Amino acid sequence: MKTIWIIFKREIGQFFSSAITYIMLAIFLAITGFLFYNIASYFALQCSQALQYKTAYNVPLPPMSANRWVILPFFSNIAIIALFLIPVLTMRSYSTERSSGTAELLLTSPIRTTQIVWAKLLSNFAIYIILIATTIIFQLILNYYTKPGIDWGPVWSGYLGLICLGIATIPLGQFISSLMKNQIIAVFISFALLLFLWIVDWSTLFSSGTISSLLGYIGLSKHFANFAKGVINTSDIIYFISLATIGIFLTHRSVESWRWRGI
Amino acid sequence: MAGIQVKNLVKYYGKFKALDNISFEVEQGEILGLLGPNGAGKTTTMRILTTFLPPSDGTAIIDGFDITEKPSQVRKIIGYMPENPPLYNDMKVCKFLKFVAKLKNVSSKKIAEKLEYVENVCKLEDVWNNYIMHISKGYRQRVGFASAIIADPAVLIFDEPTIGLDPKQIKYTREIIKNLGGDHTVILSTHILPEAEMTCDRVAIINRGKILAIGSPTELAQKIRKVDAVRVEMTGPSNEVKNTLLELDGVIHIIPQERHSVFLVEFEPKWKTREQITKAALEHNWSILELTPVEASLEDVFLEIVSTQEKSL
Ligand SMILES: Nc1ncnc2c1ncn2[C@@H]1O[C@H](COP(=O)(O)OP(=O)(O)OP(=O)(O)O)[C@@H](O)[C@H]1O
Ligand SMILES: [Mg+2]
User: Fold this and answer.
1) Domain chopping of chain B, boundaries
2) For B250, which of A90, A167, B140, B267 could close a Cys bridge (C-beta 3.0–4.6 Å)?
């Protein structure tokens, strides 16, 4: 545990000493801010139109839910951004240890592979949580400007969904990073993998059968969408945890294989 | 059993045999030098001893722990400085060394003391608060050295510890290593013969994955020597002297030296060449000004071994 903490701190330190971090943070906030602004202003436009309708034709006001019109699309968008973000977070975890030779220090120090793997997972995860948490600002703004405020239940379940998304995909990204000496290649392959997992269930739209229902199950987006809607299913959670377990297992295997195969 | 016993190490990289049945022993407190040309297998040997690479066959016992069976025990007792010091560029020197100390289980009470120790011993004061990415090659080397010794491990393995250092620092590093011997078992690798002669108690000459000879520098020089040599200076016309010397039994070579009356006479050891030279001088009525045996330096030995092995391939 102590060792995990030591490596964890180093990883976090490295993260905040790198320019990529700040660029990433800035881009992330800019994009999410832009999205939020657009979605919210569209919602505002809809609301004012509905009010005009009400006064002009004396029809009852349709239910204008900020949760339905702002928060739900906002979460789907953040999830997509997270798919880009996570490979950037994970790309350096192992690739640079190999390319810069520091793996030689780690692997000849009295620490276990498991400790390395967990420290790296947790550090990436911590950064991911920080990034995701910054978007709570937008929820607060929305809450402030709507009457009687937003329904916080789906908001928290949406965040839980984003956390699950991170738990499931960060290990995969780190696994790819452990296979590649080059972080740029790692980022592209991880992104391709996550994108594939995100869209794979689209295939179920056009075909049926066991394969397509399997593909439907392994797709990330459906499982995430439930969270964003405010529905928390154990089966979705099991799905994310399983994906995480596979990723962690593969990463562990891969780093162990450095030991017996050489780097 | 303390010390290091290397037993029949074999290492394949794919089909390429980088180590071919290497065995040697290092006693506790001894400094052993691995001496060999590029690609000899020095780094490979060290990487196996430090459990960074697994051997294809054979094993080694370090302070009683088998590297293949108890690698985690081995990692607790070794300090390793790889060929290219593994450093995190985005850390400050002091932070990095603190990190390494913690990784190597230096207790938090002792960390400050250890940091001060390596700062002084490795002369890191000038770069102590600098980012590693900004320090020079020589300083990187020193930080690598510091990280190997910071936890005061019983066994130290240095892969080319003086490469990239300035002459003053080379001399100083050799002294540090010498001082580490005694309390620590040390293996270092080098291509530099004087370095091996100066710092090591024993030297193993390695080439193409094989240990060709092992022993103290002087032992090695004697063991391998197939040719004896004497320096001769006689009064008498140098041409005549040269021809006379050439006619003696067992003489292989006559090499003119700095002054034209001085020759280096190389001969097969079994002939009593020095006696013959004295006799010849008496016959010609020359007087002998110098007749000194020349010891083959390790460098000669090294070149000799490596080149004979190359020929026999
Ligand atoms: N990872 C690897 N994959 C394939 N071949 C390798 C690998 N590492 C080393 N070799 C080969 O094994 C041989 C021994 O290499 P090694 O690095 O042990 O030599 P060395 O004695 O340390 O040389 P140098 O003095 O140049 O550092 C070389 O021929 C090298 O090309
Ligand atoms: Mg080498």
Assistant:
1) 4-222, 226-293
2) B267
pLDDT of B4-40, one tens digit each?
Answer: 999 999 999 989 999 999 999 999 999 999 998 888 9
pTM greater than the 0.90 cutoff:
no
Taking chain A (263 residues) in consecutive chunks of 10 residues, what is each chunk's mean pLDDT?
92 87 88 87 82 78 71 86 91 91 93 95 94 88 77 86 93 94 90 88 71 78 84 88 95 89 70
Bridge partners, B26 (sequence order): B4
Question: What are the distances in angstroms from CA A109 to CA A113, A167, B71, B99?
Answer: 11, 28, 10, 12
Residue B50 phi/psi, 5° resolution? -90, 10
What distance in angstroms lies between residue B185's CA and the mean position of ligand 1's atoms?
A: 24
Nearest Cβ partner for B102 among A6, A259, A262: A6
Q: Residue A13 and residue B95: Cβ atoms within 8 Å?
A: yes
- Considering CB atoms only, which of A7, A17, A109 is closest to B75? A109
Angle, helices A152-179 vs A183-199, to 10°: value is 130
Q: Which CATH number fits domain B4-222: 3.30.390.50, 1.20.1090.10, 3.30.750.24, 3.40.50.300?
A: 3.40.50.300
